[in-house]
Amino acid sequence: MKSLVVYDSVYGNTRKIAEAIKEGLSEKYETKIIQASEAKAEDTGNIDLLVVGSPTHGGWFTEDVKGFLNSIPEELLKNTAVASFDTSMPQEGQSFFVKLITRIFGNAAPRILKVLGKEGAKIIDSEIFWVLGKEGPLKEGEEERAKQWAESLSNKKV
Ligand SMILES: Cc1cc2nc3c(=O)[nH]c(=O)nc-3n(C[C@H](O)[C@H](O)[C@H](O)COP(=O)(O)O)c2cc1C
User: Fold this and answer.
1) Contact between residue 52 and residue 112 where contact means Cβ atoms under 8 Å apart
2) What residue segments make up the domains of the chain, in order of their start?
3) Is any atom of ligand 1 closer than 6 Å to the C-beta of 53?
């Protein structure tokens, strides 16, 4: 079975989570990892599981993730299992402005899943991983949690 992890990252934290997810999936899947700016719709052909992740920016995913999601023709994801993740700041780490934005707009991961769902994919799960500031670092233990989450995806899918 094959899986693909597509992610975006400005400061490297989401990349670390994506790599941990790849590691978790690799027990069960032949797994590729691609940055969203490099990913093409055809990369999603012939895969069993697609995992897409982004840093949360103003409650949304990044432009590169948006570009990737928009590039996927609907029929390509029919019967493909999909999951999403983001990195976000917990409320206590946020400035007043970001706190307000997060409260109003939410997080990237559920939005990614919603787009993929509209494209006909089979929704499995979404998860948020925490950074302690805009540039990181990741909260302690998040990479291990990401690996475990990825392992749990393999089980949910079958
Ligand atoms: C322009 C911008 C907007 C952001 N907006 C949010 C937000 O709405 N909610 C939030 O929790 N974090 C927000 N953050 C913090 C990001 O979550 C954080 O930079 C990201 O998780 C780090 O991941 P990366 O190292 O992969 O870029 C924002 C960061 C930037 C740069």
Assistant:
1) yes
2) 34-153
3) no
